[in-house]
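During the reporting period the student researcher (J.K.) took over the structure-prediction task from the postdoctoral fellow and processed the backlog of single-chain submissions. One of the processed entries is reproduced below for the supervisory committee.
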Amino acid sequence: MRFLNFRLFLILFFPINSFSKEALVFSTTFSDLLVNVAQTQEEKQKGLMFVNKLSKTNGLLLLYKKPKIVNIWMHNTKIPLDLIFINSQKKVVLIKKGEPFSKKIISSITPVIGVLEIPEGCAKKLDLKVGDKASWRIVERTNVKNIRYYHCLDDF
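J.K. obtained the following structure tokens:
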């Protein structure tokens, strides 16, 4: 009950899109994909829950200090997502579809250090595949002059 009250407190008293950091994600097929970064346990637990529309961002990057098996569910997540699991060598090891409001657990299967959450279909449009390298650098929004929004995000 105490955990439930804490989550309710987080949802009610912290803005939906209040992430402390942002990153530019890049690969061989794309660059400068601006995303929010979830580093704290609270930010990772909340993820993109209750978000109606992506605004001023292309998605969310969940980061882990040590490689671990990550389990995600889409409960209270309104936007259909591509979930891209990235290992410690910065290789994409798995791409899964996240269905809105689903309580089905989506597992990384192998240890990862990052999960990139972007709108469904965007991984294909960015030509991102299992085995590709995907990396990022943390940035300050004020230092980002040319924010790149990809056409696959136009509906979100």
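The committee noted the following: Residues 1-16 have pLDDT under 50 and may be disordered.
J.K. will present the remaining backlog at the next meeting.
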